[in-house]
Amino acid sequence: MKESIGTSYLFQIVVVFVLLFTGYLCLSINYARSYAVKNNIVNNIQRSKDFDDNARAKIAKYLSNVGFKSTGRCPSDYGAYDVSGTYQGDGKTGVYCVKAIEVPEHDDIPLRKYYRTVVFYKLDLPIFGSVFSFKNYGDTYQMGAKSQG
Where does 18-78 show beta strands of DSSP type E? Predict the structure, then answer.
């Protein structure tokens, strides 16, 4: 009887380590996938030199090909977008979020702007499901802003 009790503790320790390893593996895979999606969103905005309909269409095509559907709540000043590139509203739930940030004029440098993006990834454990949600931020380079005069 003493041997079986000791074996059950050892079995529980093994189960805990298997769950920890599985959780770490799932988190790593989801992070790598969200990193690739974030990079693609940033690259499409930079190629279009603006976050316009053309960039949204390319992003939507990429997201549908990859099958990325991890969602999260965007920060209040970020625009939320779904898989098809449809605007959901500021601070709403979406697949990715985008915010235009203006860099003020300084000396001879004209008004510039860049875009900050947010993509979500989750810790999905096989038995427990989605446990935690994380954000992956990315920035484009600075681009010339359209004149506001």
Answer: 72-73
